[in-house]
């Protein structure tokens, strides 16, 4: 197939997809299309009555005689000519409305295709399930990118205790919360592919810029201008065109303190993997401990249909967000089901030697509430991928040795992303969570 033909085929498919989006239930379009057609037909009948019975009778007569002449070669019956004229008139009317809307949108600086996405998001996705996702890192951003196709009622509660890399440098220089995981989540939920790409751009050169991402610098700028990110939240969501909401677990800088089985305490997330050695993580806490949470986060937890923990690093992504006292209290007091999305592999240093039940028990002990459900992957991880991870000290996290109580709470789904890495597939993970919500609704 030639490049031009492939381009035309792709354009036709895109056009068909956008046409189906216009006709999606809840868009508020079909009813007005039906009304437009009915009014046009009634208007045509009224105009015909006026011309046939009024002073323009001779015009109607000449028009009908001219149309009748078209049927002399028996091309079509008389009523067929009338139907063809009506179809052409309706098509022209539709075309005029479309072009008028395009002209009006372009005069305001809005691309017509973007307007459709906004309407679709506001009308259809705004009725999707209310989901709160807690965590950080790549796992949470992958989950958000899968969920945003199905619902705009997403609230991401992101850990901000990272003290390494670009986040650590900005945090130390500006005394701000770590922006790295926030940037990833904003990029995942942004409705603008261009903005999402720019947010994740990492500078490879430039004194003071090398190693920083554009998104981290943007959040640092807004934080500096507003005296903290709390005052800039609304501006951030509007500028980045975020589908849903992304909030830090707390608006104050916090440090993770990890207690190990050999009695040592490790201060800082970046130090954990380097200092854990042969010891195991016993628990983690935040310094300072009495950190505030945003009211919007607590409201989202109270109104959620499902609270999702993970996927992500247990001690450095999931638990730090849950250690903010107000968030932990809101989750404990909420009647909303909590599902823990289990990691596919253990993490060298951080969770080496821990079983799935150990992960669940750690969440229960730190949160004060056990997850209602545990979602695990059912797709076998290829042996060569397992071998590569094993060389780094990571093992598959599965149900071996799990208690009957845990097995009763486990739900499985094919969640493995195709490729040479052990990662969750965003679309499959979103579908599994939506299926759980549908099941819980039907059981209620």
TrEMBL record:
Keyword entries, A-Z: Cytoplasm, Membrane, Transmembrane, Transmembrane helix
GO molecular function: LPPG:FO 2-phospho-L-lactate transferase activity
This protein's record includes keyword Transport: no
Example GO BP: regulation of cell shape
InterPro entries xref list: CofD (IPR002882), CofD-like_dom_sf (IPR038136), Gluconeogen_factor (IPR010119)
Places the protein is found: Cytoplasm
Function: Required for morphogenesis under gluconeogenic growth conditions.
NCBIfam families hit by this protein: CofD_related
Assigned protein family: Belongs to the gluconeogenesis factor family.
Cross-referenced HAMAP family: Gluconeogen_factor
Listed name of the protein: Putative gluconeogenesis factor
UniProt source species: Deinococcus aerius
């Amino acid at each position: 197939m030639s490049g031009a033909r492939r381009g035309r085929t792709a354009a036709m498919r895109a056009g068909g997809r956008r046409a189906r989006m216009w006709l999606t239930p809840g868009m508020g379009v079909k009813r007005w299309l039906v009304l437009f057609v009915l009014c046009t037909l009634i208007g045509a009948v009224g105009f015909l009555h006026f011309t046939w019975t009024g002073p323009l009778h001779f015009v109607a007569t000449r028009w009908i005689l001219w149309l009748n002449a078209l049927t002399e070669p028996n091309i079509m019956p008389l009523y067929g000519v009338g139907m063809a004229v009506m179809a052409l008139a309706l098509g022209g009317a539709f075309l005029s409305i479309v072009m008028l809307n395009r002209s009006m949108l372009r005069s305001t600086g809005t691309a017509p295709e973007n307007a459709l996405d906004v309407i679709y998001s506001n009308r259809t996705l705004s009725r999707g399930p209310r989901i709160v996702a807690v965590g950080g890192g790549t796992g949470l951003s992958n989950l958000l990118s899968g969920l945003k196709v199905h619902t705009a009622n997403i609230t991401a509660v992101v850990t901000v205790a990272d003290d390494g890399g670009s986040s650590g440098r900005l945090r130390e220089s500006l005394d701000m919360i770590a922006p790295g995981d926030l940037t990833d989540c904003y990029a995942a939920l942004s409705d603008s592919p261009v903005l999402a790409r720019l947010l994740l751009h990492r500078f490879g050169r430039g004194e003071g810029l090398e190693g920083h991402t554009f998104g981290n610098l943007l959040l640092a700028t807004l934080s500096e201008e507003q005296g903290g990110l709390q005052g800039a939240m609304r501006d951030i969501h509007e500028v980045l065109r975020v589908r849903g909401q992304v909030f830090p677990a707390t608006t104050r800088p916090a440090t993770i303190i990890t207690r190990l089985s050999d009695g040592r305490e490790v201060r800082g997330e970046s130090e954990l993997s380097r200092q854990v050695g042969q010891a195991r993580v016993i628990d983690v806490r935040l310094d300072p401990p009495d950190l505030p949470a945003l009211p919007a986060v607590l409201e989202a937890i109270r109104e959620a249909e499902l609270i999702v923990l993970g996927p992500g690093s247990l001690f450095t992504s999931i638990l730090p967000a849950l250690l903010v006292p107000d968030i932990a209290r809101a989750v404990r007091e909420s009647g909303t089901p909590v599902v823990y999305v289990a990691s596919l592999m253990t993490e060298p240093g951080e969770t080496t030697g821990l079983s799935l039940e150990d992960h669940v028990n750690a969440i229960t002990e730190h949160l004060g509430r056990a997850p209602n459900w545990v979602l695990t992957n059912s797709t076998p991880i290829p042996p060569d991928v397992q071998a590569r991870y094993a060389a780094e000290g990571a093992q598959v996290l599965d149900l071996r040795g799990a208690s009957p109580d845990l097995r009763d709470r486990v739900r499985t789904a094919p969640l493995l992303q195709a490729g040479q890495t052990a990662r969750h597939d965003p679309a499959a993970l979103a579908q599994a969570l939506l299926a759980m919500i549908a099941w819980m609704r039907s059981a209620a």
